[in-house]
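Exercise 7. Given the components listed, write out the predicted structure of the assembled complex. Treat all entries as one system.
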Amino acid sequence: MRQSELFTKTLKDAPKDEVSANANFLTRGGFIFKNAAGVYTLLPLGFRVVQKITDIVREEINAIGGQEMAMPALVPKEYWDKSGRWDVEVGFEAKGKHEKTANFVLGWTHEEVLAEIASKYISSYEDLPFAAYQFQTKFRNEARAKSGLLRGREFLMKDLYSFHESENDLFRYYEEVKKAYEKIFARCGLKAFYTVASGGDFTISNTHEFQVETEAGEDEIVVCRLCGFAENKEVGKHKAGERCPKCEGVLDKLKAVEVGNIFPLGTKYSKAFNLKFRTKSGESEHVVMGSYGIGIGRVMGTVVEVYHDKNGIIWPEAIAPFRAHLLLVGEVTDELKKVGDNLYNKLVKAGIETLYDDRVDVGAGVKFADADLLGIPYRLVVSEKTSVKEKVEVKERGGKEEKLMKFEEFLD
RNA sequence: CGGAGAGUAGUGUAAUGGCAGCACGAGUCCUUUGGGAGGAUUUAGUCCGAGUUCGAAUCUCGGCUCUCCGACCA
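Answer.
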């Protein structure tokens, strides 16, 4: 992508009143645009990051047998009546302009929808287990949207639902999802604590959250840094300073953001939707369900909270919008442009996603500042003053040197 | 949903009852070209609605929106 053709621009000043690092840098860099509190447009750069994250999630969920599908955002009232969740306060009701009453809710979760569908297709133990998921925009009328992408009223979520003939089988799959989640967050560069959370009325045991340490987080958890045991403060069984229940360590308290969660639902929704199957011995039983979410936009925001310095974002390579940032620096002469264009073409041809700052009449300071802000992992600078490798020098945004040799082959 | 603060040009700000100004951005011209360049010139603004007043960005009332703290949630 040639930066001269990118329709967004960077902003020099941080948005007024905005405090969180992710809202600041993502807005200034032109990754996102705020349309309303907690409602964001993903601009081309932000969209690329989200695509990288969804690709990773899709790969890992497919690997545990998830079947991708797409459910509607308009969810019929009758479904919510069945589950008793019509009046849940986070819901946005949707009504036709000329209709008297709202007949839909903008989906804020999809247990109801999939339970309804499953009840038409599942009839025998032979149909179980199965798991289906989607990436979808969810709508929740949060009383207070805040912290940029960390808590929005409209956000992209990966929601996975699993269906089983027994609790045993549910918990077998639950462990698989847990492992998949661990891989997903690790690949996104996040260290996530697998955290015990209170289940509430909706589940048959505790639920689990994946929490990433950051001051911008809204949750407080106690963790053992030795073995990784973690518990949400709301559970209240363990306190900071106490001995870890799993090992010799001592529990620490920290602020964190929940990037994912997994719920053993049991039969709440299968009962509401009459979702039953015949066992091998011919009895009719309710399907046992689990549900598993990952907030995609929240992952993106969390990564920015974790990976930034005073100048901007430092994307982990796996989810960076581009891998290389090629900069023409100094006076852009025809000769210099030729060196840059050649290198750009070579990189693109080799499948290296490259943002090429080919802007003319933009000062070096501006280009470097923009590059720092955008946070693309590898920076290749083409300039008259660079003596290395025919006017090209390579730097890594995060400051480490060892990976730079990757680009040697392109610098002939 | 409770509490607090704030809405002035695309962005950031000044003007506290009396000519809406500055910087960045954007346009044009010239100079400059390795860390947010310089000069000239142009562009563009008081959230909405009432009220007080000779006169309102400024004061009053109502609304809308945003931010922060709290409660609640992926």
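Discussion: The mean pLDDT of chain A is 91. The longest strand of chain A covers residues 251-266.
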